[in-house]
Each structure stands twice: as C-alpha cells, then as structure tokens.
Specification:
The protein is an alpha/beta fold. It contains nine helices and ten strands. The protein has a five-stranded mixed sheet with strand order 3-2-1-4-5, with helices on both faces. A hairpin with a 5-residue loop joins strand 7 and strand 8.
Length: 345
C-alpha cells in the first residue's frame, strides 16, 4: 500500500439502482467517472428491479475497463476497491458487490463498503481541480434523491449525524409521482424542471406538511396534488394540458420551499455556515438557484457538486472509499448487500 495519500488509487463501483458506474480516484481527485444509463425502464414508468440487475451484469465489465482506460491506470496499480453496499435494490447491489469482491481477490486488494447516502454527502468534497474549493468541517448537507431526503451534519469525511429526514416519501419520489399524474415521461423530475422554466411558480399552491423539527414529509403533498388534479379535471378535462407549465412550476416551487424551510431552521440553530446539497434532486435548476439565493442572503459558503456527481455515480463511492482507506476501514469478503442501510449506524 502506498504511504503518500495523494497517490492512493481507488476503483469505485456504484450499482444501487439503474446506473452502472465505475470511477478511479487518486487521492481526493477523480481521474475517471463512467456511467452507463439504463433506458429500458422508461416504457414502464419506473425502475424494474429484474431488468436493472440484468443490465448491470451486461455493463459492469465494460464500464470498469473504460474507467481504467480513461484514467490511464493499470489495474495492478490500484490500492483498493470501494463499492456501494446499500441502500438500494438488492439485485443491483449484488452485481456490484460480487464484481468488486472477485476483482479485488484476483488482484489481492482490500475492499471497502460504502453507504450510498454517505457518499452523496461526501461528493461535495471532490476536488475537481487545484483551484476548486471544498467545504470545511462541520458542514450541513441537504441530501435530496428519489429515495431519501435528509439534513446531515458532516463533522468529518467519516463522521455524520442525521439532523432531520423524511418520515415517509422522499422529495424525488414526489417529483416523479406528480410527473406521472400529469402524464410526463419517466424520469419525471427532469421533465418538471424543464417545463417549470416556462411557468408561473405561484399559479397554484399546495399545503406544506407540519412534522418534526428538521424532518420532512411528502406523502401528503402527493395526495393533495392528486385530489387537486381530480377536482380540476372534473370541471375541465383538458386542465393538465392547458396548465402543464404552471403546474410544474408551482409543484417545483412548493417542494423547494418545503426543503429550504427546514434547512434554514438547521442553519440558524447550529450556526453552521458551510452548506452543501447532494443527491439526484440537487441537479434541479430551481433548487440550485434557490440555494444560491439563500447563500447570498445569509452569507453562507455554498457547495454544489458538478451535475455528473449529483445523480448516482461511482466518483462519490471512490472518494468516500479513499477516506475510509485512510482510516484502515476495510470490509471482509463475507459482506452482503443491504437494501436498507442507515447512513449513521
């Protein structure tokens, strides 16, 4: 193993859902980040687990080879293999974990399990170039994805605390379900973001949930939107088509306001001024703009990962694996995937 941490080479593997990704990190920098998307799910309106597993099996070897080629790294120069253990789809996780174990054993390398949500938070620490800034500790991270919505206090690369999280559905799921109700193609979140730019964000209002201090809830939001659409369509069957842009803008605005209200409470209470966002929904242009406005208003240091590090990717797995490597936090070969895997054990 190398003694100079800046030269440590980690292969990261991500296969928690429907992206097969491999990345090579050198220290806290990313040399390559390859992502193979699965378009097969679009016609079903959501991810089909069995199809996702088969696609991972097809993609995993070419993706890893492409990452090594792009990084100009020989597999024999690697120091460890990091992989997503969970949370995620069991079948999809199993493909990535099985490959990571076999690959590492063949090269006599240690393996490092990574929590997917932990990695999303640490994606803010990826240094893209010599001039790019990363957050200092502690920082607050609003992690927003299809399956999770959390406010995390990140005290170090390996020490996290959940301040608040969704009590039911995640914000990303709310975006996708609302999009499906409007007949938008899957994945719905990006479609809403695109149409929202053409609409009036205050055209329609929806109730905001009242839950625990920093916690979230989006099941009621989805239900209220469903009831609203049913009622309006009874009066005008063409209501959705005639108001699609305004509906998207209003939905996006309301979800963002719900997210920011709790985040502002956490900022005020903790007095932490280093703030990051992560997860697939952090790619939403409305959320990114709202966070930038919040940062300017409250004089915060804001860190938003590049778009390729927002959605599921192996770069965040590799970089988290790097910091676990420094702590000698390695896994045993009997490690198994976990569909539910709390970010704080």
């Amino acid at each position: 193993m190398k003694t100079v941490k800046e030269n440590i080479l980690i292969l990261g593997i991500e296969s928690s859902c429907d992206e097969t990704s491999a990345s090579i990190s050198k220290g806290n920098k990313i040399l390559a980040n390859i992502i193979a998307n699965q378009t097969v799910h679009a016609k079903y309106g959501g991810v089909v687990p069995e199809l996702a597993s088969r696609a991972h099996q097809k993609h995993i070897i070419p993706v890893v080879q492409q990452a090594l080629n792009e990084a100009k790294v020989d597999k024999n120069d690697l120091d460890a293999v990091a992989f997503t253990r969970g949370p995620g789809l069991l079948g999809s996780l199993l493909v990535g974990i099985s490959f990571a174990k076999t690959f590492a054993q063949a090269l006599n390398l240690p393996i490092i399990e990574v929590n997917h949500m932990h990695a999303h938070a640490i994606s803010a620490c990826i240094q893209e170039n010599e001039k790019s800034k990363v957050p200092s500790f502690p920082f607050l991270c609003l992690t927003v994805s299809g399956g999770h919505t959390q406010i995390l206090k990140v005290s170090s690369h390996t020490e996290l605390q959940i301040l608040g999280q969704t009590t039911d559905d995640a914000a990303g799921e709310a975006f996708d379900k609302v999009a499906k109700l409007m007949g938008l193609p899957y994945p719905g979140g990006p479609e809403i973001d695109k149409l929202a730019k053409q609409g009036n964000e205050v055209a329609f209002t929806f109730p905001h949930p009242n839950v625990g201090e920093y916690d979230y809830s989006f099941s009621g939001f989805k239900t209220s939107f469903l009831n609203f659409i049913r009622k309006e369509k009874q009066k005008n069957p063409a209501f959705i088509e005639e108001n699609k842009a305004d509906l998207c803008a209003s939905v996006q605005h309301n979800i963002i306001q719900i997210l920011l209200k709790k985040l502002v409470m956490a900022i005020d209470d903790t007095e932490i001024t280093q703030i990051a966002i992560a997860g697939g929904v952090s790619a939403n242009s409305g959320l990114r703009k709202a966070m930038q406005e919040l940062a300017a208003e409250k004089n915060l240091d804001l860190f938003i990962p590049a778009l390729e590090y927002c959605t599921d990717n192996a770069a965040m797995i590799a970089i988290t694996g790097f910091y676990k490597y420094l702590d000698d936090d390695f896994s045993q070969l009997d490690v198994t995937p976990m569909a539910r895997y709390p970010v704080v054990q």
